[in-house]
């Protein structure tokens, strides 16, 4: 059968970045990627598509143009793992062998968890920036909704880019504010959570915008049903004592962030933890039970913000550790949990949330340039003009400087943090 030194599952932000990092470090390495799609998406751009700043086409490239030429591409979906045989099974039953496996298939948007939702997506005022096809409809609705009620929903964690539901709301409100329509609009944020943002340092700045735009925030309100034709949404509301009730609301515009879960072929595999995500060592990103498997990105169970920004730091750590593992050595590079969420609070300003494990703030810039907990113009320029370029030209291509000094600084020679894998059998 087929056998590769490194087999990567998923050619998204994470899979491509790891391939790029590996090839920079070791040109000519035998790498294969399993990826079914013909398109690669820059999902962080979708917030700006929904806000009328980017065209949708700017956020997509053909997979062939992103895939390194040296990599063998299986254009198929992986469907099962047999780690004891060191094999991955594809949909059509083909088996691919590996010496080291990197698993990065992203997460699944669970539209069907909310009855009525899928049928009305893209119609009846129901939209979501979480889909390439729908983000332009968000902007269309924002331009056409002059009165009535606009609801923005957020499901239970974990979700990718936890700030994205709010970003859509603030950019919409900014437009309505500039047009003078905000007074005629009842804007509601319905979140399954109990706080505006998971890291408390960023809440005051967000709270100011909630006040400025006159947004009604409804905590512990979980969307459970949508009727597009009737333009109603049903929420399960939990009160302070833990009692639940159901509340129905009419809407003119409904922006939904869907519930999210690990892909089925992961959660039903021996790679999963109890919640279904890939069970990883949070520092080395090596699998908790299989020394020859690594994972990263949205499908992992590491408790960082699920963002492309996290992937930017994870990919070089995985690349370093994969090369050590190929030599039979224990992993030494360490990921510190960095993730970032540029909160678009108005057109031209962003609250640049950057934090690691435990909500520890990890600003990339000196405070005279960006005060992370305050709205910043520089951070907007970063998001609009610089980050897309960095994504396509540096991160996916595995440029050394993307690693940052951290992963090496945390790597004393005698610090063994994982298991060497044994290629004996
Ligand atoms: P993905 O990039 O989703 O890639 C997964 C890949 O795996 C896909 O190509 C998929 O086709 C493939 N795959 C799936 N199943 C299989 C299978 N069975 N076999 C093989 N391959 C498979 N991040 C930020 O840093 N900043 C932001 O501002 C930001 N904003 C966001 C806004 C929105 C609206 C959204 C949706 C996301 C945002 N993100 C942001 C999050 C960011 O896009 C993700 O965290 C990032 O893409 C994760 O990378 P990944 O490779 O794990 O998953």
UniProtKB/TrEMBL annotation:
<keyword id="KW-0560">Oxidoreductase</keyword>
<dbReference type="GO" id="GO:0071949">
    <property type="term" value="F:FAD binding"/>
</dbReference>
<dbReference type="GO" id="GO:0048038">
    <property type="term" value="F:quinone binding"/>
</dbReference>
<protein>
    <submittedName>
        <fullName>TIGR01244 family phosphatase</fullName>
    </submittedName>
</protein>
<keyword id="KW-0285">Flavoprotein</keyword>
<keyword id="KW-0809">Transit peptide</keyword>
<dbReference type="GO" id="GO:0016787">
    <property type="term" value="F:hydrolase activity"/>
</dbReference>
<feature type="domain" description="FAD/NAD(P)-binding">
    <location>
        <begin position="4"/>
        <end position="120"/>
    </location>
</feature>
<keyword id="KW-0274">FAD</keyword>
<keyword id="KW-0874">Quinone</keyword>
<dbReference type="GO" id="GO:0070224">
    <property type="term" value="F:sulfide:quinone oxidoreductase activity"/>
</dbReference>
<dbReference type="GO" id="GO:0070221">
    <property type="term" value="P:sulfide oxidation, using sulfide:quinone oxidoreductase"/>
</dbReference>
